[in-house]
């Protein structure tokens, strides 16, 4: 599977025309068509594709057979011929039938945004887990698209002995893929078991986990490198990082934490990829604190932040304590700078500016630092008392009448998780 996906880069240089459809629904949802096309150009270039031309169509809704309008298909065909393009890349996801119709009509390879992203991931994946995850996502993408209409796929198989009577090539393809998918899932589960064990061990040591999260190219890996000297891959391209990297970081007060760099997010991140990378992204779910790194100089800053928030919600990390790091302020216009809030959970930085790194460490420390609180807990609430022992450090303990008086230090994260149950016992 992996080799088959590399034809956008090897074999023959892909010469592509990029196509985007802008529908009524997009308009209602406030989709920024231009920004999305710009991003598609970056994605294509990242995949090693030569971009020849960009085409956008405004249309009420996608055409069932062609995705774009029939007239536009004709225009595209002439363009493909005259520019000698061999590939057409669509900014939206296409159905299997649409791909086949367009391929026949245009005599070019048809790729959609999801496939392009999957392709980049396939080129980038380095660890065994990453490679397996991408392959699984590719098959999940492919399977529903193997509908019975394709000429190559639905031919009746006439082989003797190897296939059952009348069994079509399509069914054999499907069966082959399903077997492989089962095998991939089994292997991934095994890796995940090890990972869970490792994570549980790490948890027992009580070390605080902090995750760098954000839109692709925001500067997450740069920050990890600047803060911890980690030897990570940094590139001005999309999806430079696929596999999570963790490094220890000492905070100004002496406390050690583990900081983890993660895969970047993108608008319309294929669902199959989120599902496939769920295990890797568990790192985010395990984090005590999320550092959301934002490219503050991007014209699509707000959109990108929203995409990240949505994916965090989907992963189940939407309510975790979060610090927003507005990065690349050295590239911001004064107007852009003016719009950035600065408070306890928002910081403006440039990853290459030393003093800002100290500020990042300080804001992490402040977020993790404990507040000191005193609770009066009735003796019969042993459950709460044992929670206090687990989730706080006890400074002093006293008794009054039948109640226990605990003065404890509890960090914000643990307070958010468990402290609220103690609220009514808090002595102000
Ligand atoms: N000018 C400027 N460039 C920055 C800053 N931080 C990062 N960069 C550049 O932005 C580009 C992307 O940085 P990365 O650290 O690879 O970004 P990332 O968020 O890890 O990206 P992915 O791994 O692709 O998701 C690189 O060219 C960095 O040198 C900054 O504060 N200022
Ligand atoms: Mg990175």
UniProtKB/TrEMBL annotation:
Single GO MF descriptor: GTPase activity
InterPro entries, A to Z: G_HFLX_dom (IPR030394), GTP-bd (IPR006073), GTP-bd_M (IPR032305), GTPase_HflX (IPR016496), GTPase_HflX_N (IPR025121), GTPase_HflX_N_sf (IPR042108), P-loop_NTPase (IPR027417)
Binding, Mg(2+): 221, 241
Recorded superkingdom: Bacteria
Residues reported to bind GTP: 214-221, 239-243, 261-264, 327-330, 350-352
Cofactor section: Mg(2+)
Alphabetic keyword roster: Cytoplasm, GTP-binding, Magnesium, Metal-binding, Nucleotide-binding
Compartments where located: Cytoplasm
Gene3D superfamilies, per database record: 6.10.250.2860, GTPase HflX, N-terminal domain, P-loop containing nucleotide triphosphate hydrolases
Primary location group: cytoplasm
Pfam families noted in UniProt: GTP-bdg_M (PF16360), GTP-bdg_N (PF13167), MMR_HSR1 (PF01926)
Ranges of residues in domain Hflx-type G: 208-372
GO CC, alphabetical: cytoplasm
PROSITE patterns: G_HFLX
Subunit structure: Monomer. Associates with the 50S ribosomal subunit.
Summary of the function given for this chain in its UniProt record: GTPase that associates with the 50S ribosomal subunit and may have a role during protein synthesis or ribosome biogenesis.
Similarity-based family: Belongs to the TRAFAC class OBG-HflX-like GTPase superfamily. HflX GTPase family.
Protein's recorded name: GTPase HflX
Source organism (scientific name): Paenibacillus bovis
């Amino acid at each position: 599977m992996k080799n088959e996906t590399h034809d956008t880069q090897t074999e023959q240089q892909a010469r592509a025309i990029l196509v985007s459809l802008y529908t009524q629904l997009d308009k209602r949802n406030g989709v920024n068509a231009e920004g999305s096309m710009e991003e598609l150009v970056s994605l294509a270039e990242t995949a090693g594709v030569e971009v020849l031309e960009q085409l956008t169509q405004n249309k009420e809704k996608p055409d069932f057979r062609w995705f774009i309008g029939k007239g536009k298909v004709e225009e595209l065909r002439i363009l493909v011929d005259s520019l000698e393009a061999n590939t057409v890349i669509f900014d939206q996801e296409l159905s299997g039938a649409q791909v086949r119709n367009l391929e026949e009509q245009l005599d070019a390879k048809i790729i959609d945004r999801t496939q392009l992203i999957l392709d980049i991931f396939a080129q980038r994946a380095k660890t065994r887990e990453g490679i397996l995850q991408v392959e699984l996502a590719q098959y999940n993408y492919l399977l529903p698209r193997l509908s019975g209409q394709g000429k190559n796929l639905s031919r009746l198989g006439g082989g003797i002995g190897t296939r059952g009577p009348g069994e079509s090539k399509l069914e054999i393809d499907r069966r082959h893929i399903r077997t492989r998918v089962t095998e991939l899932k089994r292997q991934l589960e095994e890796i995940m078991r090890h990972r869970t064990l490792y994570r549980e061990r790490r948890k027992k040591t009580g070390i605080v986990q902090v995750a760098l999260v954000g839109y692709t190219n925001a500067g997450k890996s740069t920050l990890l490198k600047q803060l911890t000297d980690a030897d990570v891959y940094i590139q001005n391209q999309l999806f430079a990082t696929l596999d999570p990297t963790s490094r220890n970081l000492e905070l100004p007060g002496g406390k050690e934490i583990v900081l983890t760099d993660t895969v970047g997010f993108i608008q319309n991140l294929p669902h199959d990829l989120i599902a496939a990378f769920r295990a890797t992204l568990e790192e985010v779910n395990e984090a005590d604190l999320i550092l959301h790194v934002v490219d503050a100089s991007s014209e699509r800053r707000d959109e990108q932040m929203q995409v990240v928030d949505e994916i965090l919600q989907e992963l189940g990390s939407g309510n975790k304590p979060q610090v927003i790091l507005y990065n690349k302020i050295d590239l911001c216009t004064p107007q852009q700078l003016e719009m950035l809030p600065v408070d306890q959970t928002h910081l403006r930085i440039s990853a290459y500016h030393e003093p800002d790194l100290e500020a990042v460490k300080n804001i992490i420390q402040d977020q993790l630092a404990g507040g000191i609180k005193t609770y009066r807990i009735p003796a019969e609430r042993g459950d709460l008392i044992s929670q206090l022992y687990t989730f706080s450090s006890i400074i002093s303990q006293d008794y009054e009448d039948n109640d226990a008086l605990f003065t404890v230090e509890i960090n914000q994260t643990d307070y958010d998780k468990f402290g609220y149950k103690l609220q009514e016992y808090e002595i102000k």
